[in-house]
Amino acid sequence: MEHLQTYLANNKQRFLDELFDLLRIPSVSADSAYKDDVLKTAEFVKQSLIDAGADNVELCQTAGYPIVYGEKIISADLPTILVYGHYDVQPPDPIELWDSPPFEPVIKDEKIYARGACDDKGQMYMHVKAFEMMMRNNTLPCNVKFMIEGEEEVGSDNLPPYLRANVEKLKADVVLISDTSMIANDVPSITTGLRGLSYVEVEVVGPNIDLHSGTFGGAVANPVNVLCKLIASLHDENNHITIPGFYDDVVELSEEERAEMAKRPFDIEAYKQYLDINEVQGEKGYSTTERTSIRPTLDVNGMWGGYIGEGAKTVLPSKASAKISMRLVPNQNSEKITELFQKHFESIAPSSVKVKVTPHHGGEPAVTPIDSKGYLAAVKAMEKTFGKRPIPSREGGSIPIVALFEEVLGLKTILMGFGLNTDAIHSPNEHYGLFNYYKGIETIPHFYKEFAGMYA
Ligand code: BES
Ligand code: MN
Ligand code: MN
User: Fold this and answer.
1) Which domains does the chain show, CATH number per domain?
2) Which of 86, 89, 399, 422 to mutate to test the pocket of ligand 1 (most atoms within 8 A of CB)?
3) Which of 22, 140, 232, 423 is in Cβ range 3.0-4.6 Å of 134 for a Cys bridge?
4) What does the alpha-carbon distance between residue 261 and residue 288 come to, in Å, rounded to a whole number?
5) Alpha-carbon span 444 to 162, nearest angstrom
6) 300-349, pLDDT tens digit by residue?
7) In angstroms, rounded to a whole number, what is the distance separating the alpha carbons of residues 305 and 258?
8) Residue 13 C-alpha to ligand 1 middle, in angstroms?
């Protein structure tokens, strides 16, 4: 592996310049105004795989943005790693809170600042560069297939049909993804669980038109008032979710498992300071780490209605809306939870208003075993490059496709992410440490070597 170290050292600046070029293309999948840029990004990723030495590189068309596919098959006798990542990014809003423009990457304090720097362009590109290193040094130890999509941030709607239609083509022994976080740069970890997601939009409709709040206020239901009350009632005084049946399928961890989790280093004071909050809150009986990984949640993501312009306008709004996400844990099912939500929400609405619940995307939770070949290969790889044994860590975010890799392709996923929870993904000033970028590129070839070694 020494020649790889030399190659990395000799190509460090170019690896960074290329990532900067990738970060300059604003591939916001949620906003159709960026359509050409998203397509340009797919072309960029395609070319980067060709340049790195992949074969059969193509853009696979879907009903939405294309999936970039490429492979290097060196022998049918060797195992195959399927690398997944995404080239789309979240919208940069609120743009005025960025210290530098989101699509003009800069280095500050040893970190790359740009939308997508960590999620997921930076982490995805580490795989392209690690592959290039192995190709140039003739040390690729097994087969590899790349599948990089452009709709992860909007729910990957077109990925399940692609998986089902390409079971043979995507045949592999493990899926490898870098799109998650580690505990800290000196506390390496491997993600062993992700939460699922149910996302709904609710609308409360009162009178057929915005009214004078003096003339009608007090006698006609105010949809914003009602919506606030309804939403408030979704948690009880212990911060349990009140939707009947919501917890029915939740797998409770054993006391041993919880004790093991509690050993994970976590500095609550630093956490509060980072967020500038006086106190944490959450479901009674669970720690902050548990609340953000092994427990389901319900959160309003956005809410609107009535007058929100400058000054004061006296109005009794006709409508109010909210976008609500529920993070799910094993064995909850997103469709079932969405249904439970809908039924409950409709049942608690007063007859003075009409309510409408519209489901958005969903995804199932996933947990990965810690005794698989892939997991052990990841442990060995990170142990080599970090000088410390990584610990398992369940996370709160969602990558819905992970459950489908298992269901459709029968494959376990290894979530070897190199981000940090402080990287501000989805937020203004997203960033990714240079340490993390290069450490990822260095670690990935070790994973390939260890994984291939287990089949020798
Ligand atoms: N990379 C994230 C998921 C993630 C972040 C997992 C941090 C673990 C730690 C991914 O791009 C993402 O943002 N997923 C969405 C879900 C999707 C259906 C829009 C999420 O978790 O909100
Ligand atoms: Mn991501
Ligand atoms: Mn994301």
Assistant:
1) 2-194+365-453 (3.40.630.10), 196-250+296-363 (3.30.70.360)
2) 399
3) 140
4) 11
5) 26
6) 999 999 999 999 999 999 999 999 999 999 999 999 999 999 999 999 99
7) 42
8) 29
Cis status, amide bond into 94, omega within 30 of 0: yes
Atom of ligand 1 nearest to the CA of 400: 18
CA 336 to chain centre: 22
Question: Using CA atoms in the order 390, 393, 397, 401, what is the torsion angle rounded to 10 degrees?
Answer: 70
For the chain, state the CA radius of gyration: 23
pLDDT for 362 equals: 92
Token readout for 300 is: 């309003």
Give me the numbers of helices (H) and strands (E) for the chain, helices first please.
12, 18
What average pLDDT is seen over the chain?
97
Is pLDDT above 90 for 2?
A: no
Per-residue confidence band for 361, with pLDDT thresholds at 50, 70 and 90: confident
* Of residues 401, 391, 395, the one with CA closest to residue 363: 401
Q: How many residues in total does the chain contain?
A: 456
Query: In 34-188, which ranges are E strands?
Result: 55-60, 67-72, 80-86, 106-108, 111-113, 143-149, 174-177, 181-182
Q: Which atom of ligand 1 is nearest to the CA of 181?
A: 9
